[in-house]
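Need residues for this backbone.
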């Protein structure tokens, strides 16, 4: 609401400055062409026109700077919220696999976190999260044999990286590193279960 009020007030200011510029310009043209103007009248009108032009240009500059600053603050806030929500999603997902079984209440918790993440995410990540949750409900397994398959946990991580836009395009090397990280977690978890059994 505050952003809307600022936008309207800046628009009104720009409109008033534009009207003032047109009025002064028309008066100047009228004085110059209606009768023989004196040098003082021309100088006064030129000075008034210069003042109006400077004020108008400053007003327009302030308007666009304010708009750019508002958009920058929005992007920073969105990025920070995405980081927070995506981190929570990854933490909940990792905790759900602590006993090598994903139970229904854990799937519900992951689904709820995915819904929150979907509120901030771009379309590609939303689709990836939906596929991941569907796959989780079907298989009750966090890890898939084929990490390229639709709904794989690795694909969620890669989509989150792309959505945040803090990295260049996901390279093959980065994709393999993510696979190794996820596979390492799976292997370590499986060996830990075997040793305790």
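Answer:
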């Amino acid at each position: 609401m505050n952003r809307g009020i600022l936008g309207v007030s800046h628009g009104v200011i720009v409109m008033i400055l534009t009207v003032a510029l047109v009025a002064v310009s028309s008066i100047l043209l009228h004085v110059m062409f209606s009768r023989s103007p004196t040098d003082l009248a021309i100088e006064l009108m030129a000075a008034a026109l210069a003042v109006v032009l400077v004020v108008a240009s400053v007003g327009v500059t302030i308007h666009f700077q304010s708009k750019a600053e508002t958009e920058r603050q929005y992007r920073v806030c969105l990025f920070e919220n995405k980081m927070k929500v995506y981190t929570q999603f990854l933490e909940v997902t990792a905790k759900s696999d602590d006993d090598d079984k994903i139970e229904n209440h854990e799937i519900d918790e992951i689904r709820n976190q995915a819904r929150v993440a979907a509120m901030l995410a771009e379309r590609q990540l939303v689709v990836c999260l939906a596929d991941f949750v569907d796959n989780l409900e079907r298989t009750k397994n966090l890890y898939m044999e084929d990490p390229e398959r639709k709904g794989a946990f690795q694909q969620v991580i890669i989509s989150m990286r792309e959505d945040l836009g803090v990295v260049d395009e996901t390279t093959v090397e980065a994709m393999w590193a993510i696979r190794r990280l996820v596979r390492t977690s799976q292997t370590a978890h499986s060996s830990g279960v075997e040793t305790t059994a």
